[in-house]
């Protein structure tokens, strides 16, 4: 049919056996769109006038409708969960791809449907518009639109539909209330437009007399009252320009719709998926994501599209990580690495090349998606439960706009668990055990880039294979049942988890005790130090009573109250035992947002056996273990009685005893710590810690006048206000002297004012500045083991100590630590 003819839609479908299909390049159905009321009413008035006009009037001509016929091998098996039963003819079908006339054809289809329903002509309508059970007008733009048109022509959907329509009710609301209508369809612009048009048809034609269906189709013998000029222009390829022009008149497809069209095409070509997958995309799975959007307080289509697309991009990222080893990732080109990173955060869609022509959506990915989303459908409460740390809502966390690697690793673990056959709801004990190990592994690794993410995911994927008896499998891992080797480094988290799994597997009573210990905001599963400290020498397993007591002590020592104590009791008590900073120059703060922060602060101190202080003093225990033992001796016997105030009192007692011991060891001068022992100065002066707002110090192990080389035992110590020397910093000895002079300035009549000048950067020195009543001002700094008088604030030129200044300093500083006149010269 290559020449134009004047036909009605009824006649066209009666003379041709093709299916009218609106191609992907077309816009959505716009005549029913909100904002098009005036245009819609004008068109409906013309239709009504044509149907009610006298026999001598000419039919309403809708101008040219043209397109081309195409052959397709679409096979659509029956979907039992899609509402009314649908059966599609299998085999090769002919489609008429509409180039121009989409809006008019859709309105005519809805007009025939409505009048047939109203006037009881359902059988005739179905024989012409759905002879094989599916609609002969369909949309290729969205799967949901195709399903909708198929659903409304089913006998089950049509039977009783008109009789159940309440007087005065809207047609659209009545359709939406049907059991076969999916909630997600309301968010398809084409379906939304169809419902709006049906409402308008019901208002305009509902009150009219019967017989309009016969007049519309020409069955009254007078000829069809609405026709158009039909033209089949043969093979016609849509160009980009035409696509842009067509969509400029209506709403363009969203990024997700473009992705979905490409994915469905990929499945058809490669036979990787079946129709159930594409069907679920626009029905029950779509309802699931709409539920998530609404739960987040949004009901916008754009947010739904973003969230849904974000999910598929993340699944593609997971598949890429499965296929890429962490070592091989580093050997990829910069462009390939950027591509993988982009998949993780993508919420937009570019041409299929960005997904390697959809190769990432292979059988494994499709199976993962299907099992996961179907599981969420089976247990909606699991899908939408508020996040409580058990992974029940990791889907929403992983798809958040700024989701981090940790949240996406937790979601990957859940995907693997369900894909492997795990049942979180049906087998809660196995799931709780799985999630405990997963949380411990994820929260105790630094996952800040793709290689680290790939490494943790490989461990999680391997665990998923043994989810049915996770503890039993982990208990058989090498070294899991071995007592700790106190000469070895602290084991990594995986080894720790295997040891705990062996302990629980062999002695089930341990499970509750271990969980209590792990559930601490700072430890978060990293409890090897507590286990080891509770493990008697030569014993096969730890002592559970001692473990419970140590757990209580550790929890209090690492509580926010103690970590943020303004008197810095924990830091000062540790310094009584040695240099717990161990060369890291980190005094440790309460930061705990990530594993990186925890490991660079207290977690690194708790789990360290190889500190410089330990090597120097040949200790068999690390500092934190020694402190726990010291605190334990000062606490009540009953673990439940270990309170914050008890621990703080014990720490204060340890500090007080150490300061008394300083005097006995001759490490004080007139009651104040000697400059040589810098840790004693910090123990006696909490203000030194207060100045270090980022808990950092700097040290300079000088060689000046030291024949043995660098002076590691008595370095110059700088208190840094931020994290580097580029920030303002002061020098420890002069700063402690400044605090002493401030407290007791009243005993020095000649001292009018005292101040401290911090500096920034290298090569300049902070100074203690003292102004005397006679108007003179002197500046003191500490350099290479000596207090030095300099010419001005930040100055480098040494001057001799004036007698009045030396007299004040010798109140706190032994004379040998003051630079002599001969040294100045």
UniProtKB/TrEMBL annotation:
> Which residue ranges does the record assign to the GmrSD restriction endonucleases N-terminal domain?
14-262
Please report the name of this protein according to its UniProt entry.
GmrSD restriction endonucleases N-terminal domain-containing protein
Q: Which organism is it from?
A: Gluconobacter cerinus
């Amino acid at each position: 049919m290559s020449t134009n003819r004047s036909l009605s839609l009824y006649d066209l479908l009666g003379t041709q056996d093709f299916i009218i299909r609106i191609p992907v390049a077309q816009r959505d159905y716009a005549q029913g769109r909100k904002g098009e009321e005036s245009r819609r009413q004008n068109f409906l008035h013309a239709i009504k006038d044509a149907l009610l006009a006298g026999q001598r009037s000419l039919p309403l001509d809708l101008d040219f409708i043209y397109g081309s016929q195409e052959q397709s091998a679409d096979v659509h098996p029956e979907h039992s969960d899609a509402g009314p039963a649908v059966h599609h003819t299998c085999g090769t079908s002919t489609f008429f791809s509409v180039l121009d006339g989409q809006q008019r054809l859709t309105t005519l289809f809805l007009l025939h449907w409505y009048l047939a329903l109203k006037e009881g002509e359902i059988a005739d309508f179905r024989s012409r518009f759905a002879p094989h059970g599916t609609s002969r007008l369909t949309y290729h733009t969205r799967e949901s639109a195709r399903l909708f048109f198929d659903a409304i022509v089913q006998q089950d959907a049509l039977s009783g539909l008109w009789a159940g329509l309440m007087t005065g009710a809207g047609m659209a609301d009545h359709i939406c209330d049907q059991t076969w209508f999916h909630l997600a369809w309301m968010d398809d612009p084409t379906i939304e437009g169809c419902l709006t048009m049906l409402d308008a048809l019901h208002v305009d034609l509902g009150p009219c007399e019967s017989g309009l269906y016969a007049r519309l189709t020409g069955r009254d013998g007078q000829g069809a009252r609405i026709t158009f000029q039909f033209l089949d222009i043969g093979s016609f390829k849509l160009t980009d320009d035409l696509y842009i022009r067509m969509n400029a008149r209506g709403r363009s497809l969203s990024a997700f719709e473009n992705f979905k069209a490409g994915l469905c095409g990929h499945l058809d070509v490669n036979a990787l998926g079946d129709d159930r997958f594409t069907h679920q995309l626009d029905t029950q799975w779509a309802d699931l994501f709409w539920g998530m959007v609404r739960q987040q307080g949004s009901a916008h289509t754009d947010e739904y599209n973003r969230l849904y697309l974000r999910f598929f991009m993340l699944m593609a990222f997971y598949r890429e990580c499965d296929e890429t080893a962490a070592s091989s990732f580093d050997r990829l080109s910069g462009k390939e690495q950027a591509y993988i990173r982009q998949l993780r955060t993508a919420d937009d869609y570019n041409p299929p090349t960005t997904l390697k022509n959809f190769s990432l959506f292979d059988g494994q990915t499709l199976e993962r998606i299907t099992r996961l989303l179907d599981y969420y459908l089976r247990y909606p409460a699991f899908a939408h439960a508020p996040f409580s740390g058990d992974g029940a809502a990791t889907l929403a966390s992983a798809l958040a706009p700024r989701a981090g690697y940790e949240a996406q690793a937790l979601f990957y673990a859940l995907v693997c668990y369900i894909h492997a056959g795990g049942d979180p709801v049906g087998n809660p004990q196995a799931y709780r055990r799985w999630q405990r190990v997963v949380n411990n592994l994820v929260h105790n690794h630094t996952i800040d880039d793709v290689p680290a993410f790939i490494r943790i995911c490989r461990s999680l994927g391997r665990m998923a294979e043994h989810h049915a008896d996770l503890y039993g499998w982990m208990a058989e891992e090498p070294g899991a049942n071995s007592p700790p080797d106190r000469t070895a480094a602290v084991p990594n988290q995986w080894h720790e988890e295997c040891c705990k799994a062996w302990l629980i597997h062999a002695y089930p009573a341990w499970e509750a005790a271990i969980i209590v210990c792990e559930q601490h905001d700072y430890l978060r599963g990293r409890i090897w130090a507590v286990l080891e400290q509770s493990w008697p020498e030569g014993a096969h397993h730890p002592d559970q009573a001692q473990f419970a007591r140590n757990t209580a002590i550790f929890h209090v020592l690492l509580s926010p109250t103690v970590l943020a104590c303004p008197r810095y009791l924990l830091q000062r008590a540790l310094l009584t035992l040695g240099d717990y900073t161990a060369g890291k120059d980190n005094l440790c703060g309460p930061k705990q947002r990530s594993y990186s922060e925890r490991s660079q602060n207290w977690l690194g101190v708790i789990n360290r056996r190889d500190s410089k202080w330990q090597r120097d003093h040949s200790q068999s225990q690390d500092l934190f273990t020694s402190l726990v033992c010291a605190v334990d001796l000062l606490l009540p016997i009953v673990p439940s009685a270990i309170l914050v105030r008890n621990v703080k009192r014990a720490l204060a007692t340890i500090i007080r005893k150490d300061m008394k011991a300083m005097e006995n060891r001759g490490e004080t001068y007139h009651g104040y710590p000697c400059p040589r022992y810098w840790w004693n100065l910090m123990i006696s002066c909490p203000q030194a810690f207060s100045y270090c707002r980022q808990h950092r110090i700097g040290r300079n192990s000088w060689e000046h006048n030291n024949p043995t080389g660098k002076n590691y035992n008595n370095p110059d110590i700088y208190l840094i206000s931020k994290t580097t020397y580029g920030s303002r910093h002061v020098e420890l000895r002069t700063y402690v002297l400044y605090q002493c002079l401030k407290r007791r300035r009243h005993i020095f009549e000649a001292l009018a004012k005292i101040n401290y000048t911090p500096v920034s950067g290298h090569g300049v020195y902070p100074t203690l500045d003292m102004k005397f009543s006679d108007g003179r001002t002197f500046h003191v700094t500490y350099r290479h083991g000596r207090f030095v008088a300099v010419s001005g604030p930040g100055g480098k030129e040494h001057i001799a100590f004036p007698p009045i200044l030396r007299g004040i300093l010798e109140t706190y500083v032994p004379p040998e630590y003051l630079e002599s006149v001969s040294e100045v010269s």
